[in-house]
Design brief:
single chain, 343 residues, alpha/beta, Rossmann fold, 2 domains, five-stranded parallel β-sheet, four-stranded parallel β-sheet, 15 helices, 43% helix, 13% strand, elongated
């Protein structure tokens, strides 16, 4: 059962069983002004009737707002961190102080990999509470196919992510420019847009400025947003997925991009940076990762895929097999169930 204060994109999650607790309702607004530690009584009664065994909060900054739920439900508490809640907010002393109550009260704190575990320890989370729990991919059900580039066909490159500094889109555009000057025919599809966080609009303007500067507008297509099924359609029509993630100037960083695992599971060769827990996701193939902020390293990986289409196909199939064996949702769900069983 999912508890939320906003329900959106329901068509994407048709089987989701969710309870909407809208904080804008008059009763909770009055109650919350008078009581800082317990839930609005009718809501608390409704949730207790579910007879839940574990309460699981997602995102560290959300967990800090779940104090009323934690006190009212009095259940073992699991908290999952995902990226900016560690790497960006973890640089802010106010947030670090707010997290100390979470770390003290939580039964288990879940990270996406070893890099995030180290980041959580650095801001005060006891090591014995941290469990690595990666994002799962429904690899069995996901549509997939080998990526094959026919002779004379351009290399079709895909990027999907918010237009935010840590996503590193500018380095992909610089790499595409170099490839173009080398005579490599290519197309570039960008799925994403600015999302309203400080700096996003500046990053978006930088992206389109670079596209104009390098004369790439004619080979670039942008989709501001796509449904998941449409994104998979675009992915299956593309040859290679690029994840040029970087640590931003303000310290913001990825956890491990969910879309990366999804694209790998479709059989798509993926070029990514040695960033955060991306090496953990790549596992035995981590030596194929490239340094952050290094367009030429991206160029060499992409050039190889263009020159050796059979390598592109083979590596894509290797990534699908790896995701199936390691990060399929059934494996990850079983691991999470085991965590719950210890509480």
């Amino acid at each position: 059962m999912v508890i939320c204060d906003v329900l959106e994109n329901r068509a994407e999650f048709p089987e989701l069983d969710a309870i909407l607790l809208d904080p804008a309702r008059l009763g909770p607004r009055i109650w919350n002004r008078l009581n800082k530690t317990s839930l609005f009584p009718p809501d608390a009664s409704r949730l207790r009737r579910l007879q839940a065994m574990v309460f699981h909060s997602h995102l560290g900054y959300v967990a800090t707002e779940d104090r009323r739920l934690v006190h009212s439900l009095d259940l073992p508490w699991v908290v999952s961190y995902y990226g900016a809640d560690v790497y960006l907010l973890g640089r802010d002393p106010v947030w670090v102080r707010n997290y100390q109550w979470v770390f003290k009260r939580a039964s288990k704190v879940l990270s996406l990999g070893p890099a995030m575990s180290a980041g959580l320890e650095a801001i005060g989370c006891p090591a014995e509470k941290i469990v690595i729990h990666p994002l799962g991919v429904d690899a069995v059900a996901l549509r997939n196919q080998p990526r094959v580039r026919a002779p004379g066909e351009p290399l079709r490159i895909l990027f999907a992510g918010t237009f935010r500094e840590k996503k590193g889109a500018r380095y992909l555009i610089e790499a595409a420019h170099v490839l173009k000057t080398r005579g490599v025919p290519l197309t570039l599809t960008l799925v994403g847009d600015a999302a309203g966080r400080p700096g996003d609009q500046q990053t978006k303007e930088e992206i389109f400025s670079l596209l104009a500067k390098y004369g790439l507008e004619s080979v670039c297509t942008q989709h501001k947003w796509l449904s998941f099924e449409k994104l998979i359609d675009v992915g299956l029509a593309s040859h290679v997925f690029v994840v040029p993630s970087v640590t931003a100037e303000d310290g913001d960083a990825e956890g491990s991009p969910a879309v990366m695992g999804q694209m790998m599971a479709t059989g798509m060769p993926t070029v990514a940076t040695r960033h955060s827990d991306i090496p953990y996701t790549f596992g035995p193939y981590a030596d194929r990762l490239v340094p952050e902020r290094d367009p030429m390293a991206l160029v060499e990986r992409l050039q190889r895929y263009y020159d050796e289409p059979e390598t592109m196909t083979r590596e894509g199939l290797e990534y699908r097999a790896h995701i199936l064996a390691t990060f399929d949702t059934r494996i990850c769900a079983g691991a999470l169930s085991s965590v719950y069983d210890t509480l």
